[in-house]
């Protein structure tokens, strides 16, 4: 069996560091916004090159609270992609705003920036770009557009921790461009914890202070509440895990790129479309997603060989039942074609070259 991700292998590699640190945290019994959360926020901010990083309970909460802190609310429109996990759009709905889905680029699967510009109306308040599968959006061009139109930008970085974008001043991490960057630490992410966890990054002291209040029941001073907030704090024990993994993130991402290169070599010459790197940034391959008209046949062959595979995402958000009223009649042809042909293969830092070769041999056998 070859799984989509092997969390056990990563745990074993960190066991000698991680378990003593967990025991120390357990003995300290400072479980809510404790020293490891505070330390991780500083370490993550330093790595990502931002002024502030605020730990929250999940990536979904990160998006939700970031939109509130950016001032997005009822009556506003937020432009985003239909080819993403539903959390991106859920967060927009949570604040009373309306998600406006636009089509994607057929090669990167990220937002088509020309479509973004065409979708702007007087009600548009913000844009949420999703760095899908670890491929950064061209944030230089998007920020120019949004600054010119006075639009907020909340980056969805759930799949892109460690990915960078090239600017005239050098490489800049995803999450460092807009009003806020939102990260998920779901266990399978490039930087994952042992449960749920999230982070919001920002260069705004005002937004950072509001986020700290929002995550803690709207309180900056204990038992004094200036606004209605939420219970959304990064767990102390999850912060221990993240602190152990953060120094390894570049190595993890380099190994993901190694696996991706091995896939590209093994699939060369086949009638499949492999992931595209557009040169605007460094892809960190949270997923390795190809396109093929023979998807069903490939899936059957992989299943017969006991090789995991997945479709991210089979139903685009504009075609989901929950958005039927607002998206009735909306046609996004590139998104729909990609959803009909996409297939994700196993990828994780510990995936060995021999196993990649085994996977590509099975796919080659289909053709």
Strand portion: 15-25%
Shape label: globular
Q: Which CATH C-level class of the largest domain is it?
A: Alpha Beta
Question: Which fold does the CATH topology of the largest domain refer to?
Answer: Aspartate Aminotransferase, domain 2
* Largest sheet entry: 7 strands, mixed
- By CATH, the superfamily of the largest domain comes out as Type I PLP-dependent aspartate aminotransferase-like (Major domain)
Structural class: alpha/beta
Alpha carbon gap, first and last residue: 22 Å
With strands numbered from the N-terminus, the spatial order across the biggest sheet is 1-9-8-5-4-2-3
Number of strands: 14
Report the order of strands and helices.
HHEHEHEHEHEEEEEHEEHHEEHHHEH
**Count of DSSP H/I helices:** 13
Protein described:
It is a single chain. The strands form 4 sheets. A 7-stranded mixed sheet has the order 1-9-8-5-4-2-3, sandwiched between helices. The protein starts with 6 loop residues before the first helix and ends with a helix. It is globular, with a radius of gyration of 20 Å. The chain has 2 domains: 7-102 and 109-247, Type I PLP-dependent aspartate aminotransferase-like (Major domain) (Aspartate Aminotransferase, domain 2, 3-Layer(aba) Sandwich); 249-366, Aspartate Aminotransferase, domain 1 (Alpha-Beta Complex), CATH 3.90.1150.10. 40% of the residues lie in helices and 15% in strands. The chain has 367 residues and is an alpha/beta fold.
